[in-house]
Amino acid sequence: MLSVSIYDDNDSLRETLALVIEMTDELVLAGSYPDAMQVLETVSNDRPDVILMDIEMPQRTGTEAVKILHQELSKPPKILMLTAYEDTENVFEAIGAGAVGYLLKKTPADKIIEGIHEVAQGGAAMSPSIALKVLSAFQKPKKITYDLTFKELEVLQRLVEGDSYKLIAHHCQISISTVQTHIMHIYEKLHVNSKGEAINKALRDKIVNLSR
Fold first, then answer.
1. Are residues 95 and 162 in the same domain?
2. Alpha-carbon gap, residue 26 to 33, rounded angstroms
3. Residue 113 scores a pLDDT above 80
């Protein structure tokens, strides 16, 4: 038997999910909660094998709850996000926090059950549209930044725009000596020896754009 806990502030959906789990062979409901404020305590007490976790909940998001469980527990349960959010930012944040699956709330009940079994067995369950977005994100060419800091990128952008050191200092709200220090670091990271070489490399590798 697999034990499953639910965290979702939608009472109707939470109750429906609980009923589906209780009526499914090989699944048992470990706990059902409208928020994740006491997630560490409830998970420690319920000891579920799999968690169905919403993202948007009062006071603490599901992604924050996932992070807490992975930080505090030596062996956290498998966490399957079940949410209405399908943007890549929420997907990658949840997966980065430790979730092993991501299903949309419009997913049919039988597919949610399949997802629970899949993550429990070490797999990763995803709604087809989410899987496509993840693949698409990985297939996009990554922008080369050469490990430049945000301020160095800002200074380089100004160089490309043709600003003088004085104008760069004014726009970036730093001193001219700091501008010079940033430019020295930019040259080192780009492996160039002049402003012209830095600008050419910045445009060629699309580190910055010619116009904002």
1. no
2. 21
3. yes
